[in-house]
Design goal:
123 residues; mainly beta
Length: 123
């Protein structure tokens, strides 16, 4: 079992930055594919970014060039650096993990999920 806990969310003005963290416990996640998703009220859970074992990354078009996903295997933590935030980035952000070496945009392939952290961007 893997437990994931997100942190770092909050309220920020448009154009600002936040760094989300996803701390894993229970297993070493160096052998896990990791992803970030977000869900705005009344909408589906959308893919944001993913990273594989070799630190290969993939981003949604809406965040490419503004967000950066990274992992620190020694700390068993994955990060999402979010720059140039926009009001449309407002959502609950979730961290996800699945055993395997890949990047996936599909939420149904990830086995483990955190509880989420709220990000609110004001205009």
């Amino acid at each position: 079992q893997v437990q994931l806990v997100e942190s770092g969310g909050g309220l920020v003005q448009a154009g600002g930055s936040l760094r989300l963290s996803c701390a894993a416990s229970g297993r070493t996640v160096s052998s896990y594919a990791m992803g970030w998703f977000r869900q705005a009220p009344g909408k589906d859970r959308d893919f944001v970014a993913a990273i594989n074992w070799g630190r290969g990354t993939y981003y949604a078009a809406s965040v490419k060039g503004r967000f950066t996903i990274s992992r620190d295997n020694a700390k068993n933590t994955v990060y999402l650096q979010m720059n140039s935030l926009k009001p449309e980035d407002t959502a609950v952000y979730y961290c996800a993990a699945d055993y395997g070496d890949y990047t996936s945009t599909r939420p149904d392939v990830y086995e483990y999920w955190g509880q989420g952290t709220q990000v609110t961007v004001s205009s």
